[in-house]
Structure formats: structure tokens, C-alpha cells
Amino acid sequence: MRVTIISNQSEKSKQVSKSLEDLLQEEGVVIDGLAPDIVISVGGDGTLLSAFHRYAHILDQVRFIGVHTGHLGFYTDWREFNLADLVDQIKNDKQEAEEYPLLDVRISYQNGQEAKHYLALNESILKLMDKTLVCDLFIRDEFFERFRGDGLCVSTPTGSTGYNKSVGGAVLHPSLEALQITEIASLNNRVFRTLSSPIVISPNEWITLKPINTSSITLMVDQLVSEEENVAEVKLKIAKERVSFARYDHTHFWDRVENAFLGVKKQNASDLD
């Protein structure tokens, strides 16, 4: 078993990473950042996103584990007080995994420049920083609407609890093979009209976004930000690749949602009388 540890820069995370590395080495687990079997992130969801993008080229070989050192995240199941249990699970690993869908993002250019390709764990966002984005939206290459507004967010089910939720999108269970597109501050009046509602896309469909009358856009892929010039279109679909999380003590998705957004244990029906 080969393991690597990715940590954020907080002192607590650094201390937890050092303790975890010592425990792993005591059990004979090899620390290998080049070809790991398991990638452990120590921090929050942002740290795990960074770890995901660092090893996105070998997703068929690695599984991820999240250790959180702050508030509970959606990808982080472990805390500093149960590191010994985590090491024991790794030592007795049975190769079990929880797999989630990813977002495939492909950018084509007007000037013949080579297309760019990204994978997103959470979402991709298209916007302009200094003016209204005007963008034609196609589903399965069929024109759907001309969007005007601040931007568009396309999210995975696991990413639906992030930026997507903050702009009015629905929370989707990660077992669903679906993508969601959510408008960001769309313009809707008697002249301009959009659906003005989140749209959930099935596995055999794809989304194409074509910016209108602009030479540059801002494209975000998870926490990565890119200023793109001469964009012809951005095509988004469910990726053939999937992300795998080591299935040890994996917290149920709806428990994560309840914990993160409600913060209290759900009341029994009798308590509501």
C-alpha cells in the first residue's frame, strides 16, 4: 500500500499530517507522492479539491480520503482524534470504494487553437467579470435559450451542495448520474427571457455554451480560475472518469447535508407538536 498526504498550510493541519505520517510509517505503509494508491487530504474540502486536481491524471489508480481539521466538509470523514483507526483501516484495506461522477469540460477556440480539457469534481462556472454575459445554451446540440446575466454554473451531484446551492440550485444525491445547470442572476423582463430555473441533465445529454459578442470569458473549474480568449464554445458532460473514495467509515450523504446546513439533529415528529 502506497499513500501520500496533501495538507493545507494551517498549523493544525501540518501537525495532523505529521502525526498521520508517523503512524503510517510505524505500520510499514509506504509514503509515495508519485504513484500512490491512496491520497489523504488534511484540511477541508478545498484541500481535497487541490489533491483531486493534482492526481486527476491517475484517477483509475487512486482513492481519496479526507481528514478535516476545521468544520465538517462533504468530502472529509475523519478527524485528528481517530487517526489510529484510520491507519488501522488502511493497513487492513479491502479495496472498497465509493465512486462519484465527474464533470468533463472542453473548451474550443475560434482561432484554431488546440482545445483544452478539464475534469471538475464540484462545478464549472462561466462568467464575465466586468459586464453581462450573453451566451447561447444548447442541450444535445439543440438550441435551448439565450442567457443574459452574471454567469452560468454547471455542477456535479457532489458539487450541488457548493456554489450551485448558493445560487438557487437543487441538492442532488451523488449516486445520480446527472449534471445541473443553474443561472447566476439572469436578466428576465419583457424583452429578455430565460427558463430561470435549474436544469438537471441526464447521462446521455450534454451542454454546450457559446458566448456571444465577447472576446474573453472567465472560466472556473472547481477552485481553478482561467481567463480565456477567443472562446468558440464550452462543452460540458458527465465524464467517463470517476473519482473514488476509500470506503471505510463513509458518512451518509444526507447526514452531511443535515450537519452542514442545519447544524442540529433532526427533530422527531413528536417534538414538533
What does this structure look like?
With 273 residues, the protein is an alpha+beta fold. The chain folds into two domains: 2-96 and 247-265, Probable inorganic polyphosphate/atp-NAD kinase, domain 1 (Rossmann fold); 102-240, Probable inorganic polyphosphate/atp-NAD kinase, domain 2 (Tumour Suppressor Smad4), CATH 2.60.200. Helix content is 18%, strand content 40%. The chain has five helices and 15 strands. It has helices at residues 11-26, 45-54, 83-91, 163-166, 253-261, and strands at 2-7, 30-31, 38-43, 63-68, 97-109, 116-120, 123-127, 133-139, 142-155, 179-186, 199-201, 207-211, 216-221, 224-229, 231-246. Strands 5, 6, 7, 8, 9, 10, 11, 12, 13, 14 and 15 form an eleven-stranded antiparallel β-sheet that branches. A hairpin with a 2-residue loop joins strand 8 (133-139) and strand 9 (142-155). Helix 1 (11-26) packs parallel to helix 3. 37% of the residues are buried. The mean pLDDT is 91.
Label this structure with key terms.
NAD kinase; 15 strands; 11-stranded antiparallel beta sheet; 18% helix; metal ion binding; Rossmann fold; single chain; 273 residues; alpha+beta; elongated; 2 domains; 5 helices; ATP-binding; Tumour Suppressor Smad4; NADK; nucleotide-binding; 4-stranded parallel beta sheet
Task: Give me the Rg, rounded.
Answer: 21 Å
Q: Please name the CATH architecture of the largest domain.
A: Sandwich
The helix content is 10-25%
Runs with pLDDT <50, length 5+? none
Number of domains: 2
**And the CATH topology of the largest domain?**
Tumour Suppressor Smad4
User: Count the strands?
Assistant: 15
Given this structure, which CATH class of the largest domain is correct? Mainly Beta
Number of helices: 5
The overall pLDDT average reads 91
Cα separation of the termini: 53 Å
What would you give as the CATH superfamily of the largest domain? Probable inorganic polyphosphate/atp-NAD kinase, domain 2
Largest sheet: 11 strands, antiparallel
Beta-strand percent range: 35-45%
Organism: Alloiococcus otitis ATCC 51267
Keywords: ATP-binding, Cytoplasm, Kinase, NAD, NADP, Nucleotide-binding, Transferase
Pfam family, one: NAD_kinase_C
Binding site for NAD(+): 45-46, 122-123, 148, 150, 161-166, 185
